[in-house]
Amino acid sequence: MNKVQLGSSDLHVTPICLGTMTFGEQVCQADSHDILDRSLALGINFIDTAEMYAVPARAETFGATETIVGNWLAKNPGARNSLVLASKVAGPSRGMDWIRKGSQDLTAKDIEGACNDSLRRLQTDVIDLYQIHWPARNTPAFGAVYFDPSKEKPVSSIEVQLQALSGLVKAGKVRAIGLSNETPYGVSEFVRLADQHGLARVATVQNAYCLVNRTVENGLDELMHRTGVSLLAYSPLAFGLLTGKYDLSGIDGPDAPAEGRIAKFESVRKQRWGRPEALAAARRYNALAIANGMTPTQLALAFCYTKWQVASTIIGVTSVAQLDQAVLAWGTKLSAEVLAEIDKIRWEIRDPAL
């Protein structure tokens, strides 16, 4: 895997990134460290985490994932210099009152404090890529379809947040900055203000992107291309829908895999990935994969791995075997005929897990 540059930053990463949100909930520390060891052995140099992880988020596991990653880094001090380490500061509370006492804002002080806490948990002096997990302002996100102006509320401005992030870069605590779950407007404003005021420039946007959610291609991809911002694609397997493991049982059926995220966690089932339409769409893509001699996982990952829009695909796993399977899919080529069938399905069903 050749490394790719993230935006105009000096960060160069593998096109596969190890996501860690399962660490501390579905995966214990010992198994998490085995996955990190294997990831390093496979040549992956990019690790993504967040202060609010593990997922599903709850007070008892807030910061647990960063702590697990930090303990691994402490055991493997030689690995740090070869890795690009990314983390995220949570946006305003979405029912998580244990994060900044349920604040509905994300202030400059919040950003600085969260970064310091993450540095401590990660046991490192610098975070290579520091991202805002979701916007502070009113936006349609995590399954919401429409922007609603009536939900506007006073929050810290994009400029205030960008100033805070730039301060972290100047202080040497962060090398580059990014966004997550952002809209075209948000990305354009962060870029415009950075260029106007000589502040740190956003290098990346981490958004959902997979066969059942291609909303990135509804204009965000053009903006990112023209402004030199890189896409980090998360949930390429749609929380397991695109592995085929729910095709026969469904999400709530008695034979549903008990350890699957959607089946195991009710809070996840209530999100976009648990929609009946999302499962129905996944079944069609999974059938297309099998009809063309691939596993559903191969098709779904190859779709992300080969799209020009994607700089790096974030894979979340619960075992070394799953990690190996995800990396094995690298190099899978999709024929023009298969790509045409994928687009045909999308034309009919659009993005049911947006």
UniProtKB/TrEMBL annotation:
GO terms for molecular function: oxidoreductase activity. PANTHER family: NAD(P)-LINKED OXIDOREDUCTASE SUPERFAMILY PROTEIN, NADH-SPECIFIC METHYLGLYOXAL REDUCTASE-RELATED. Pfam families: Aldo_ket_red (PF00248). This is Protein tas. The lineage of its organism: Bacteria, Pseudomonadati, Pseudomonadota, Betaproteobacteria, Burkholderiales. Residues 15-345 form the NADP-dependent oxidoreductase domain. Keywords: Oxidoreductase.
